[in-house]
Amino acid sequence: MIKIANLNINFKNEIIYNNFNYVLKKGEKLAITGKSGTGKSTLLNLLAGFIPDFKGVISINNIILNSDNIGKIRKLIAWLPQETSLNFDTVNELLFAPFNFVVNQENNPNKEKISKIFDKFELSEKLLTKKLNEISGGQRQRIILASCILLNKPLLLVDEPTSALDENIKRKVTDYIFSKKKMTIIAATHDKYWIENSDRIIHLGS
């Protein structure tokens, strides 16, 4: 699914990646761990096409990552950054936001799919009628994760996806996400349970 060859990234004369090489197969779950500033989020942002200035060769699903192909690559990706801009008024708007894009409209989820994932994530469907400022941070994080899963993309990139969840909910959410056998998942995370259940682990800065 992903092949990284001779990756080099420098920020303000600081070397973040130096001749980094990696191959991830389709369906594998990769956890990226390490202290703050070691490049976890950088790698996710790079794969999502938000860092154009790098040296090396990256391919995603056999498509070379460059300015000409970024549109094709983003069609393959569901993306959850660590800091999410929530310029929405209601929970319903937040859940359906990605499906407003033409490229995602064919995956617009029906009530049955929403009910299923809300049940797995221990969310009440009544939340859809609420304002965003009426729900907790953990509920908000699960809503965004649910939206990412409902997009049904082959590659899921997530940055600290369970940081606002308690241990019991965290395990249920992780188990459900990892049950998506065909989905390749890359997560920057400190979550021990997520890391232990991943197929592959990269420790940065060690």
Highlighted features:
single chain, four-stranded antiparallel sheet, alpha/beta, Rossmann fold, 206 residues
Describe the protein's architecture and organization.
The structure is a single chain. This protein has 206 residues and is an alpha/beta fold. It has one domain (2-203): Rossmann fold (3-Layer(aba) Sandwich). Helices cover 30% and strands 25% of the residues. It has helices at 40-47, 70-74, 91-96, 111-120, 137-150, 167-178, 192-197, and strands at 2-11, 14-24, 29-33, 55-60, 63-64, 77-80, 155-159, 184-188, 200-203. A five-stranded parallel beta sheet has the order 6-7-8-3-9, with helices on both faces. Strands 2-1-4-5 form a four-stranded antiparallel beta sheet, with no helix packed on it.
The third-level CATH topology is: Rossmann fold
Q: Find the CATH superfamily.
A: P-loop containing nucleotide triphosphate hydrolases
Mean pLDDT: 92
Please write the string of helix (H) and strand (E) elements.
Answer: EEEHEEHEHHHEHEHE
Q: What is the β-strand count?
A: 9
**Count of folded domains:** 1
How large is the radius of gyration? 17 Å
Which ranges are low-confidence, i.e. pLDDT below 50, for 5 or more consecutive residues? none
The CATH architecture: 3-Layer(aba) Sandwich
What distance lies between the first and last C-alpha atoms, to the nearest angstrom?
26 Å
Most strands sheet: 5 strands, parallel
Q: Percent of residues in helical segments?
A: 25-40%
